[in-house]
Design goal:
alpha/beta, Arc Repressor Mutant, subunit A, Aspartate Aminotransferase, domain 1, Aspartate Aminotransferase, domain 2, 15 strands, about 40% helix, binds pyridoxal-5'-phosphate, DNA-binding
């Protein structure tokens, strides 16, 4: 301990004064355990009797509590928690990347965020609570642990996991790939960052659906992209409205458009591939929840139709397993393979080996398939329940968009302007019900009110309670008379520069 004795009077009083000074300066915070008298005597080269006398003196004055032998603790009137002096604020000279990150990144804006204190939340993107999965996952980690190499991981990902992923998505999503095409990444988030770094220069045009996954938009913006929103209708992104000259990159969710749920039609898929081919552009296919198909045959991946190596297929385990895993993959087109590997190298040398090994075991054993079947059944049940409850309690006030997969529905509220929609969300919040506006998914927010209604985070029993509460909140905002009605709320998306 850094104490200076002042050579003034008896040694025990010098030591008591030095300790009081340390308390006053905040170096000895309230609650701090003082070294034992033996340790203190050794450190300061004093006799133990001197230290015991100093501690007794401080105890008598109320600066410390406790007894010799059981520890002495600071209780001084001044000593707060020890806080190092704040570092001087350096002159800010950020990079362009950092300035854009500050501009576009809202750190609280995480998909599925549940505000504190809510009884019910129509969270989206949150996996179904599944205790069996937790137990299975612990088993896989335990099984994998003794075999995991402690050295740095392979940049491209564990061969066993690349093999398991390539087999799985070839079979279930029709993706054309071999294990050598797979790059294991830290979720879609890292996939998009790497792709943007490899492909984009400042100011390059990037097309994305309008509405779209707002996190993808943010990643593209912080990498300097100029975004062009392409409206979505019931057949997905309106590819015929893609800009001319062609954009460098298009981000699209063809199997289950986020958030509307539309499926990109076969004609538009072919048209988009042709557009990329002619313009030497690239397509990111985000297949985030294509596995959860409820009432139709699975829609195959766009990548399957790609004959020119222009599609970067991106998958994630965030929805099919859990987002805390932070694992996903890119199926790399041959032309970008080396660049993507180099980008991954500069980021982190590769994802954590232990989780990769556990995941490889989980997929290879067939447990992943079983888990997907179970979750899909549960999700279908909840989706049907939510749909029928909304119809029963909210009747013709809502237009629920057609969606055959995933974990949420989009419901538009007829004739409710966006400002009134915000008031509805606030009113629901006060009643401990969290609602989620579709507006953040737009470059140009719509004039009407749309809600993303997740059904994965609530049990059927909770859904049965949450929907009537939602209907009560909605009733606080009566429907407008025919003359006051605005335009229908659907597809108000506009193209934007
Ligand atoms: C459209 C879309 N893509 C991807 C993801 C998954 O992202 P990540 O893998 O970074 O967790 C989500 C999660 O909400 C999503 O909504």
């Amino acid at each position: 301990m850094d104490l200076v004795l002042d050579d003034n009077g008896p040694l025990y009083l010098q030591l008591a004064r030095a300790l009081k000074e340390a308390m006053a300066a905040g170096r000895l915070a309230n609650g701090t355990r003082l070294p034992s008298s033996r340790e203190m005597a050794y450190d300061l080269n004093l006799s133990r009797t001197t230290v015991v006398a100093a501690y007794e003196h401080l105890r008598a004055e109320g600066f410390i509590t406790g007894r010799v032998g059981s520890g002495s603790y600071v209780t001084s009137p001044w000593a707060g928690p020890v806080r190092p002096p704040p570092p001087r604020r350096a002159v800010v000279a950020q990079s362009a990347f950092s300035r854009r990150t500050r501009e576009f990144c809202t750190l609280g804006n995480i998909p599925g965020h549940r505000p504190p204190g809510m009884r019910y939340a129509f969270q989206f993107g949150t996996p179904v609570v599944n205790t069996a999965l937790t137990a299975q996952w612990v088993r896989e980690l335990t099984r994998a642990a003794p075999y995991v190499q402690p050295n740095y991981p392979r940049i491209q990902g564990l061969p066993a996991l690349r093999e398991a992923v390539s087999r799985h998505i070839s079979r279930t999503r029709g993706v054309a790939c071999t294990p050598d095409d797979v790059l294991i990444v830290g979720g879609t988030q890292q996939a998009l960052s790497l792709i943007a770094r490899v492909l984009l220069e400042d100011g390059d045009e990037v097309a994305l659906e309008e509405p779209h996954y707002f996190t993808a938009r943010t990643i593209l913006q912080v990498h300097g992209a100029r975004l062009v929103g392409i409206p979505v209708d019931r057949d997905g992104m309106q590819v015929e409205r893609m800009p001319d000259p062609a954009v460098k990159l298009t981000y699209v969710t063809p199997s289950h458009q986020f958030p509307t749920g539309a499926v990109l039609s076969h004609e538009r898929r072919l048209a988009l591939l042709e557009y990329a081919r002619l313009g030497s552009g690239w397509i990111v296919e985000d297949d985030y929840d294509g596995e959860f198909r409820h009432d139709q045959q699975p829609v195959q991946a766009l990548q399957q139709l790609d004959r020119d190596g222009r599609v970067l297929y991106v998958g994630s385990f965030s929805k099919t397993l859990f987002p805390a895993l932070r694992l996903g993959y890119i199926i790399m087109p041959p032309g970008l393979r080396d660049d993507l590997l180099a980008a991954k190298w500069t980021d982190d040398f590769g994802c954590a080996s232990m989780d990769q090994a556990a995941l490889a075991g989980f997929i290879a054993s067939g447990a992943y398939d079983r888990h997907l079947r179970q979750v899909t059944r549960k999700l279908a049940e909840r989706r049907n329940l939510l749909r029928s409850l909304l119809q029963e309690h909210c009747g013709d006030r809502l237009e629920i968009m057609e969606s055959h997969s995933g974990m949420h529905l989009v419901a538009w509220i007829h004739d409710m302007p966006a400002a009134e929609g915000d008031a509805l969300i606030r009113a629901a919040h006060e009643r401990k019900l969290a609602l989620y506006s579709i507006a953040p998914c737009y470059l140009q927010p719509p004039e009407g009110t749309g809600l993303i209604m997740g059904f994965s985070a609530m049990s059927p029993a909770e859904l049965r309670e949450a929907v009537p509460l939602f209907a009560k909140c909605l009733a606080l905002f009566p429907r407008r008379a025919a003359g006051e009605r605005g335009r229908p709320a659907l597809y108000l998306a506009r193209s934007s520069g």
